[in-house]
Amino acid sequence: MERRHFLSLVGMAAVGACVPTGKKSNNNGATASAAATIDGHKFPELGYAYDALEPYIDAQTMELHYDKHHRGYYGKFMKAIEGTEMETTAMHQIFANVSGHSESVRNNGGGYYNHRLFWENMSPDGGEPSARLLNALVKDFGSMDEFKKEFSDAAKTQFGSGWAWLYLDGNKKLKVTSTPNQDNPLMDVVSENGIPLLALDVWEHAYYLKYQNMRGTYVDNFWNVVDWKTVSKRWEKANKGEWKG
What is the dihedral of CA 79, 44, 136, 57, to 10 degrees? Predict the structure, then answer.
């Protein structure tokens, strides 16, 4: 896609708002309280118990992933932006110019933001896409099954650590891509830009305790915990130009 189309789509959103930080109280003693900082850069609540996604994602992985890995990215990101204007800059604006920032901002900012989306687009309830999103997926991929296959293939074939994404490009077309490390489609360093709607972490820390080297099984099981209600809402906002980062 032409990057100016993506930037015009992002430009329709209000600046400074963040993804919501939680859905319901945690019932297993998880340390999931939101730690408010400057201008909405917060460590989000997980929104469900560590064992809520069993048997597909185990409680030990969830606890380590959320409370160690994600919290670590957040702390390093906040340290990297301390004393800079990025303390009061929306994440999508930081990413739009991330090539001009430090590797720490790119890697840890990506790790902080990507995991926020990841937790929110999972739920023990699962569900189905809204009728409008389903129609859009069928329009752009041919069928729901074809979309799932393309997304799963992107996740399974991403070399090394990274992420798989469903995103809306600047022409309001749904597309799938993968990114290395903690990059995402909002960053000016990636070749395929757009608004991220569905994220899947394929770093080994996301699945190795339960699945060992069977990334493919982890990816296949992910579909059992996708929170389509959240994904559908993201798509509706992005499609209407109401997305807020």
Answer: 110
